[in-house]
Amino acid sequence: MNDIASALQYQPFRAVTAFSTGDYMNSVSTRLVMGLLASAALPLAVLPSMATAQEAGTRTYDIPAQPLENALVAWMRQSGVQVGYEPGDVAGRTSAAISGSKSSGEALAGLLAGTGLGYRTTGAGSVRLTPAPQGTGAGGTVLGPVRVQGAGAAAARGGVIETATGPVPGYRATLSATATRTDTAIRDVPQSIQIVPRTVIEDQSAVRLTDVIQNVSSVQLNGTAGNRAETYSIRGFVSARYAINGFPLTSGMDRPEAFFDLANVERVEVLKGPASVMVGLSEPGGIINIVTRAPSREFHFDGSFQGGSFDFYRGEMSVTGPLNASGTLTARATGAIQTNDGFRDGARPSERAFGAAALRWQPDSLTQVDLTADYVDQKVPFDRGLIADEDGNYVHNARTYYGERWSTTGAEKLVLGLAAQRQVNPWLMLRFTGRYTDALVTDHNAVDLQGLSDGMVRRRITNRTEDSQDLTMRFEALADAFTGPLEHRIMAGVEHNRGEFAFWSARANIAPIDMVAPVHGVTPVPVATVNNVYDFEARNWGFYLQDQIALGEHWKALAGLRYDRAKSHTWDHLAGDETPTKDDALTFRTGLVYQPSTSVSLYASYTQSFQPQQGQLVDGTPLDPEEGEQFEAGVKLDLLDRLSITAAAFQIKKRNVATEDLDNPDFSILTGEQRVRGLEIDVTGEILPGWNVIANASHLDAEITRDNTYAVGNRLNGVPRFSGRFWTSYGFSAGALSGLTLGGGIRVVGKREVDLENRFTIAGYETFDASIRYAFNQHWEVSVNAENLTDRFFVEAVQGDNNLYPGTPRRVMGTLRARY
C-alpha cells in the first residue's frame, strides 16, 4: 500500500480512498476569429466515433500474483480505468499473475481468474466488480463501495499524470475539483468550466492574471481599483473576488488586495454561472478559482528570467522534492521578483516580490496534511486610467497619465493555509481545511480623476489604509454509497468565515492637469483632511449538501443545496453610527448529463446565487440580498482523446438590484433586475501531434430588464456584445527544426457601454500576438513573445467615464527558462 501514497495528490474535497491516484469518472476581425474557431473544431467534430475509450487499446502489463486488492491498484495505475467494489468481495482473495500486451479488459479478466469475481462496465473508463453488493432490500442503500480511480493520460511533457489539482498534460485538462470540490471529470459536470493550465501560461509568457483569463470565453477585465488588483466581469456580471484553492478572497474586502503573482499557479479555472452552493456569497456570473502548485515526491526545479519592453524584468523559481528518505514529507518553495517602469509617462516604477512555501506530510496512504504560506509585497503607481468628456471623447494615447510620480499604492499580504484529510474507512473521508489572511493596503497621495472643466482634468488626492484579517474554516465529509443500481458520491459540510476590516482615509484637492498634454509636478502636496474612518466585521456560516449520482452508463446527475447565514456590523467612527445587517438564504443547483458515447456529453442545469448588499429602505429596513439564477444547456465533446470543445447557451437573471427611491433619493428600493443571455464556445487541446490550440468566442446580450433609475433595455456597462480569442502553437519534433515552436493568435473585443445610462460607447479592438520558442534540450529553452504587434491603442477595461484603463502598447518579451 505504501507505493500508492506516491500517487496521492491533495484534491480539495475529494473522496480519496486508500487506493486513489486522482481520476474521478473517467466585423472582419470577428469573422476571422469565428473562422479560426471553426477551422479548429469542425474538421474534428465530424469524427466523434473515432474517439474511443482506453478499453479498446492495448498496453503492456506486468502484475505478479498478490492480494487481489493490491493487484487491482496496479491494474488501475497501468490501465487508467477506475474500478469500484465492495471491500468484502476482495478481502482474502489472491489475484492471478498477468504479463504481456493486453487490453484493459483482458488484463482485468486475467487478474480475476479463479477469484469467483467478474466485472461490468458502469461508465466511460469505469468498471465495477460483481457480484453485486449484498445486504440490500429493494432500493436499499449500502455504504462501503471502494472507488479506485485511474491516473489519467500521460502528459506530452515529461509524462505528467493528471489529477484534478495537479499539472495538466499539454493544453487540455480533463479533471477539475472547482465545480464539485471532488475529483471529477469535466465531461461529468453539468455546467461550463474552462481551465487554463500552466503550460499555456508559459507558452504565452503571461505576466498578469488578465493575460491568462483572456483564454476563457465571456470573461473580461473589469478594472484594477486604481492599479492595485484585478476585478473581472464573468458572463456580464462583475465578480470582485476570485478564489484560491477553492477559498474566495477576504470577505471584508470588496476587491483583492494585490495583483496575483503567477509564479505559484498550476492552473486557472473558471466555473461559469452562479456558484453560491460551492463558495457561498457570490455574484451570479461565476467564480475564478486559482489552483496553486503542490509539492512533489520527485525532485524538480524550474526557473526563468524575463526581460522586455518598458524596462520589464522578472525572475522566478520553484523547487520541490522529498525531505526524507521515505518520501512521506515533501515540500515546495517558490519565489519571484519583478520590476517594471510601465508605459504610463510620469508614473513611478512598479515593484513586486512574492514567495510561497508548501509542506505535505503523508505518513500513510490514508492520511495527508498540507501546510501552505505565501507572501506578496507590491509598490505600484496609483492609476485611474483615462477620462472621457460628456460626448465620449478621450485621449487615444495609452501613455497619457493624469497622476503624479508620488502617487503610490502598496500592499503586503500574508496567507496561511492548513488542509488535513483522513480516509476513516473505505467509504468515508473526513477533511478539514482552513485559511488565514492578513493584509495591509496603503495608498499614498493617490490621484483620483474628478471630471473635466475647459479641457482640464480636476483631481484630488487620497491617503488611505485598509487593514484586513480573514479566517475561513471548513469541515467536510464525503461518502460513497449505492441506492439499488445508482452510485452516489455524497458531500456534506459546514463552513465558517470571519472577516475584519479597518478603513481610514483623508482627502484634498490638487491642481488640475491638461487632458491632452498633461504636465506633472504639483508642489507642494497639500495636507489631506480625514473624511472616513470605519470598522467592518463579517460573520458567515454555511451548511451544504451535494450528491453526484451515476445513473447507469450514460446518465449523470448533480444536486446541491446550501444554507448561508451572513451577519455584518459597520462602525462609522466619524458619524458615530453603527449599522448591523443580517441575511440568510437557501440556494440550490441541479443538473443532468447525458453521454451517448465516450466523446459526447449533453447537459442542462439550474443554479442560484446570493450576495448581501449595503443600504436600506426608507423605513430603515436593510436591503435584501441580491439573488441570481441561471439556466444553462450545452454540449461537451472530447475528440480523439486530445481535443475538447464546450458550447453553451445560458440565461442569467440578477434580482433585488438596488435602485434609487424616487420619492426618497437618500434611500433605495429593490426593483432592479438585470439579465444576460449568451452563447459561448471554447476549444482546447491538440489538433494534431505538436499542434496545440486554445480558443474561445462568446456573444452576450446583457441588459437592464427592470429599474427605476435607468431605462429598461440599456446594456450593462463594460460588457461587449462579442468577444473572443484564438491562440495556437506548433512544435517541431523531428528534422532540422526539432525543438522549435511557433505560436500566435488574435484577441477581439466589441464596443462597450461606458455606464448604465449608455451615454456613449467605448470602441472595440483587435490585437495580435506571436511567439517563437526554441528548446536546446529537455532542460533549457529560450523564447520571444510579442504582444499587440500592431501597437494599437485600445481601452482594456471600462469602469466609468473617469476609469478607462488603456491596454498595453506593443510589448516584446524574452524568456530564458530552465527545468530539472
UniProtKB/TrEMBL annotation:
<dbReference type="GO" id="GO:0015344">
    <property type="term" value="F:siderophore uptake transmembrane transporter activity"/>
</dbReference>
<keyword id="KW-0998">Cell outer membrane</keyword>
<dbReference type="InterPro" id="IPR037066">
    <property type="entry name" value="Plug_dom_sf"/>
</dbReference>
<keyword id="KW-0408">Iron</keyword>
<dbReference type="InterPro" id="IPR036942">
    <property type="entry name" value="Beta-barrel_TonB_sf"/>
</dbReference>
<keyword id="KW-0410">Iron transport</keyword>
<keyword id="KW-0798">TonB box</keyword>
<dbReference type="GO" id="GO:0015891">
    <property type="term" value="P:siderophore transport"/>
</dbReference>
<keyword id="KW-0675">Receptor</keyword>
<dbReference type="InterPro" id="IPR000531">
    <property type="entry name" value="Beta-barrel_TonB"/>
</dbReference>
<dbReference type="InterPro" id="IPR010105">
    <property type="entry name" value="TonB_sidphr_rcpt"/>
</dbReference>
<dbReference type="GO" id="GO:0009279">
    <property type="term" value="C:cell outer membrane"/>
</dbReference>
<comment type="similarity">
    <text>Belongs to the TonB-dependent receptor family.</text>
</comment>
<keyword id="KW-0813">Transport</keyword>
<keyword id="KW-0406">Ion transport</keyword>
<protein>
    <submittedName>
        <fullName>TonB-dependent siderophore receptor</fullName>
    </submittedName>
</protein>
<feature type="domain" description="Secretin/TonB short N-terminal">
    <location>
        <begin position="81"/>
        <end position="132"/>
    </location>
</feature>
<dbReference type="GO" id="GO:0038023">
    <property type="term" value="F:signaling receptor activity"/>
</dbReference>
<dbReference type="Pfam" id="PF07660">
    <property type="entry name" value="STN"/>
</dbReference>
<dbReference type="Pfam" id="PF00593">
    <property type="entry name" value="TonB_dep_Rec_b-barrel"/>
</dbReference>
<dbReference type="InterPro" id="IPR039426">
    <property type="entry name" value="TonB-dep_rcpt-like"/>
</dbReference>
<keyword id="KW-0472">Membrane</keyword>
<keyword id="KW-1134">Transmembrane beta strand</keyword>
<dbReference type="InterPro" id="IPR012910">
    <property type="entry name" value="Plug_dom"/>
</dbReference>
<keyword id="KW-0812">Transmembrane</keyword>
<dbReference type="InterPro" id="IPR011662">
    <property type="entry name" value="Secretin/TonB_short_N"/>
</dbReference>
<keyword id="KW-0732">Signal</keyword>
<dbReference type="Pfam" id="PF07715">
    <property type="entry name" value="Plug"/>
</dbReference>
